[in-house]
Amino acid sequence: MAGFDRNFTDELRARLSLVDVIGRRVPLVKKGQNYWGCCPFHNEKTPSFSVNEDKGFYHCFGCGEHGDIISFVMKSENVDFRTAISELADMAGLKMPEYKPKSAAQVAREESYFEILENAAQIYQKKLYDPDGAHALEYIHRRGFNDDMIKKYRIGYAPKNNIIANKFVNLKQDNLLSTGMCRRGDYGMYDFFRDKLMFPIFNAHGQVIAFSGRSLDGSEPKYINTTDTELFHKRRTVFGFNFARDAIHRANRSIVVEGQIDAIKMQCNGFPETVAPLGTALTEDHIAILCKSNRNITFCFDGDGAGQKAGARACDIVMPFLRDTSDVRFAFVTGGKDPDEVLNTGGTAAMQKIINDATPLVDFLWNLANAGFNVSTPNGRTQAEKFLKQKIAKINDVTLRDEYEHEYKSRMFNQWHKWNKNKNYTSAIELPEIDAITQKTLIFITNKYPEIAERYVDFLTSLNMSLDGDAPDLPMDEHAAEKYIISLKLQKWLETLHIQRKELTARKLSGDDVDEQIAKVDTDIRDANERIEKLISM
Question: What's the predicted TM-score (pTM) here?
């Protein structure tokens, strides 16, 4: 509908993944940069329906259907424009605005903003190489930037005078103020950025929408950014994304660092998929933008306390965006350094090692729980378990959420409940051998509690027995059923370990040096007995 506020529809397209919306109705498989599936608009057996997340459209090479996220909802659900917008707004968690067309004056005003900002970027670029910008040029060269990098990222210098206010003195003042480039004082208009190294901020299309200025005299804050305007919102702008967009597809991931210089240096030294938030903590909007390109994200923060907090916040924000195809990791630069310094001193290889050693999200979240609570006490373990449950609950993919829950339950069992190592473990749960009784019991469990069988499918398969058919009902609840399988698994493991122990003892008697292997098996036997003892007490 032409009368609908285009800013709102653009925001819907920015916040929602086209692949996610279409994937609710059409199974999609990624091939190259596009996703493919069978067209929902005509019958076909061979997929000819292509979805391009980056460009925001779908196209069927069979029937010719083509459109964006809004037209897909309209056509697939046979609804009008407003209904489709309303449904998408619900998905995005946005409130429906009033219907209001963009006036010709508003369109002209926005075009004026772009023109002012583009001219300002050109002025700053020129000033960097003028005599009064010599100290800024010397600084940026000292930071490892060559002239090609300066040109590519359009880095410039804002002089101490009011060069922008004077340049646009004859322009309508409200337009100039709305760009954030100038302020109004007691003596007229003055520049917001003065004596700053200037980094243009681009939208996804490469248009200048704002600036970030770095102090050159050591004053704080180090960076100041354009205040939010009609064109620029810090919470919804990812620095460097216009340069990194294609690289994110090629690398099959994005790397998120903390600052602009870090992002540029990473992009120019072997990590072109790197981006950064702008003058604000990471937000859901930032993650939504990145996930539209790729759901694999490596967060790379400083190893200090602030960096650790940034990592914990990123972990919290990214949880609702996780899918079974996501690979989210956390890397930290230690020793008081940042990526820029690592690249200057250790080069790309040193930075590559940090990225390669990044911790997967499942381990990072587990480490947060262990570091944040005293898991050696029942109270601490309870708090840590509640913490993990709260984070996992944010995962929208139900199956993935269940897998996280199962993973952490396993870790709690194996790592939190340690028993006295010197205790003589002689207890065992008596079980029949793999006979008809055991077989019938396992058949009952797989029929009654298929989710338990799914968790232990590898072990059950290793028994080489048929679990098809019926079995009589047993007085066994879900807890007892899982306990039965675990106990059987532990007994089988113990049998294997004792066989290994006998074989190693025989080799030792014949002169082989197997003391370390025997010690390892003894440790495994002791661990198995500990777990059996714990199981008995449950």
Answer: 0.65
Segment 233-278, tens digit of pLDDT: 888 899 999 999 889 888 889 999 988 899 999 999 999 999 998 7
Q: What pLDDT, in 10s, does the model give residues 142-183?
A: 988 999 999 999 999 999 999 999 998 877 888 899 999 999
Find tokens 């790729």 and name the residue. Answer: 294
Give the per-residue pLDDT at 3: 44
Q: Give the H/E segment covering residue 106.
A: helix 104-128
Q: In what order do the strands lie in the sheet with 66-67?
A: 29-31, 34-37, 49-52, 57-60, 66-67
- DSSP of 281-344: ---HHHHHHHHHH-S-EEEEEESSHHHHHHHHHHHHHHGGG--TT--EEEEEE-TT--HHHHHH
Please state whether beta strands 254-256 and 297-302 pair in parallel, antiparallel, or not at all (unpaired): parallel
Taking the mean position of all CA atoms in its chain, how far away is CA 195? Answer: 36
* Distance (Å, whole) CA 83 – CA 89: 10
> What was the pLDDT predicted at 236?
85
Task: Please give the structure tokens belonging to residue 70.
Answer: 């809004």
Going by pLDDT thresholds of 50, 70 and 90, the confidence category of residue 431 is very low
What's the CA gap between 293 and 34, in Å, rounded?
11
By CB neighbour count within 10 A (0-12 exposed, 13-18 middle, 19+ buried), where does 467 fall?
middle
DSSP 191: E
The burial class, CB within 10 Å (0-12 / 13-18 / 19+), for 218 is exposed
Question: Peptide bond preceding 40: is omega within 30 degrees of 0, i.e. cis?
Answer: no
